[in-house]
Every structure is written in structure tokens, then in C-alpha cells.
């Protein structure tokens, strides 16, 4: 395989060792980015991915950090030292634990907020401080980019996964606030997919039963999330917007999370 043409910029991807985060890392490396792969407990997967990409000529750093720790953001951004200048932050990592308004605990609330909202905010702050001051200025590099991974359920709310959903609502609002606050140095967008991969305690059969539960009868694929990310990167005037990938599932007005729509 020939080495990709170097882009001359570095992308940070949280949760980059597995699943959707890994797909983002691989796509960005293919497109010539250096990459910082953040992980928490998946260090072996992150290191294996990094070794593979280094063999293809990609500049890679791996950093393991618990996003519930306020110090994690600075450590993740610092891991980019020695790579190309920073140009992209993808907040992909997320905590997804079930609760409802009737039974959520203060600990669950705080942990969801810490990982799904506070950590992305601190990462944007550290990312902005580390950027080339010429970003977005006349004669300088284009605006850097922040992409936040949301959830298509925000387009049609239901009461399941209460504290997770509240954190994602906050992250959606933060996306616009980043775009307003940090232009012209940074633009910010989001991707909001419906269920894309097998998750939690659910089986492959459960997943297949609900994956295409939308008017198009077609489930969201990881490749579509990658395509959305590439579109956002390639479109420098796309700003403060969210790409929703749900096949129109929001039109169904589901009263429960799709994971509870399995017929057992």
C-alpha cells in the first residue's frame, strides 16, 4: 500500500481505539492526517492500531486517559506534541448507561456530564489554546475544526437514557457556542447518528431487528458517519450545523428508545 499524501495537520479522536472512533482514525490516516488516538481501557487496541498506521507512514500518538478526570483534556492535547500542527478535534468517546428520570442517581448524572459534556468542553478549550494563532486569519491556515458526535434521538426525544440524553443536549448546544465564540480560528459541527453498531447487552439479532426501523428501512452504517466527517472537513463554510443520520426515524415519534422496540 502506498503511503498517503501527508496533509500536514493532526487530528485528535477521543475513543479512537474501537468502533466508530477507530473508523474515524483509519479514515483520517488514509486522508493524510497525523492522529492522536485517545482511549481509556482499550490501550492494547489503541497500540495495535497505532502500530498498523505507523507502518503505513502515519504520524501517531496514543494517550490513555479517563475523561471523567478534569486533567484528561490537557493530557490528550499535549500528546500531539511532535506531530503536525493541530487542525481537528473529534469528540467521539461517550458514556452510555441506561437510566430514567424516575431512578437516576446523582453519581450517574455527574459521570455522564463529566464524560459526555465537560470533557469535550475542556478539550475544545485546550485545543484552542494549542492552535497556531494564524488560524482563520488572512494569509493563514483555514479555521481548525471541532466535530462532536451526538445522537439522532435529539431530533425526537424520548425519556430513556435520561442523563446520557441531557448531556448530549448540552453537547449540541455547546457545538453552536463553540462556533460563535471561537470563529474565525475554529468552526464546529456535529454528527448525530441513529443506532449504528451492536451495543450494550443487546444481541446481533436485537440489533438487526431495529437497525432499519425508519421510513427508509435502511440502517445507518459506520461508513456513512465517515462520509459525513469527510464532508464537514472538505466544506470550510459548513459551520454550527449537525448532520442527522437516521433515515427519517424522527418521523416515527417513537415513545421509547429504539433498543426497547425489539419484539421478544
Automatic annotation (TrEMBL):
List the Gene3D superfamilies: NAD(P)-binding Rossmann-like Domain (3.40.50.720)
Keyword Oxidoreductase included in the entry's annotation: yes
What InterPro entries does the annotation carry?
NAD(P)-bd_dom_sf, SDR_fam
Q: Which species does the entry assign this protein to?
A: Polymorphobacter multimanifer
Instruction: Please give the start and end residues of each transmembrane region.
Output: none
Q: What is this protein called?
A: NAD(P)-dependent dehydrogenase (Short-subunit alcohol dehydrogenase family)
Question: What family does the database annotate?
Answer: Belongs to the short-chain dehydrogenases/reductases (SDR) family.
Q: Name one GO molecular function term.
A: oxidoreductase activity
UniProt keyword annotation of Oxidoreductase present: yes
- Key words, A-Z: Oxidoreductase
Please report a single Pfam family linked to this protein: adh_short
Q: Give the domain of life.
A: Bacteria
Amino acid at each position: 500500500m502506498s503511503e498517503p499524501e501527508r496533509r500536514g495537520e493532526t487530528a485528535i479522536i477521543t475513543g479512537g481505539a474501537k468502533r466508530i472512533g477507530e473508523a474515524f482514525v483509519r479514515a483520517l490516516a488514509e486522508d493524510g492526517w497525523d492522529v492522536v488516538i485517545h482511549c481509556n481501557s482499550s490501550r492494547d487496541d489503541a497500540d495495535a492500531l497505532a502500530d498498523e498506521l505507523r507502518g503505513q507512514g502515519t504520524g501517531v500518538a496514543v494517550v490513555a486517559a479517563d475523561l471523567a478526570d478534569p486533567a484528561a483534556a490537557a493530557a490528550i492535547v499535549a500528546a500531539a506534541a511532535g506531530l503536525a500542527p493541530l487542525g481537528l478535534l473529534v469528540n467521539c468517546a461517550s458514556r452510555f448507561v441506561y437510566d430514567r428520570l424516575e431512578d437516576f442517581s446523582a453519581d450517574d448524572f455527574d459521570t455522564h456530564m463529566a464524560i459526555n459534556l465537560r470533557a469535550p468542553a475542556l478539550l475544545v478549550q485546550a485545543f484552542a489554546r494549542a492552535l497556531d494563532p494564524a488560524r482563520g486569519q488572512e494569509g493563514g491556515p483555514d479555521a481548525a475544526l471541532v466535530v462532536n458526535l451526538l445522537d439522532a434521538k435529539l431530533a425526537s426525544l424520548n425519556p430513556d437514557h435520561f442523563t446520557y440524553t441531557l448531556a448530549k443536549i448540552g453537547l449540541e448546544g455547546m457545538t453552536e457556542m463553540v462556533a460563535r465564540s471561537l470563529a474565525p480560528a475554529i468552526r464546529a459541527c456535529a454528527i448525530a447518528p441513529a443506532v449504528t453498531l451492536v451495543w450494550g447487552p443487546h444481541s446481533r439479532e436485537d440489533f438487526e431487528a431495529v437497525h432499519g426501523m425508519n421510513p427508509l428501512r435502511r440502517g445507518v452504517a459506520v461508513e456513512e458517519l465517515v462520509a459525513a466527517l469527510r464532508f464537514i472537513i472538505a466544506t470550510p463554510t459548513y459551520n454550527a450545523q449537525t448532520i442527522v443520520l437516521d433515515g427519517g426515524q424522527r418521523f416515527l415519534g417513537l415513545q421509547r428508545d429504539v433498543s426497547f422496540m425489539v419484539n421478544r
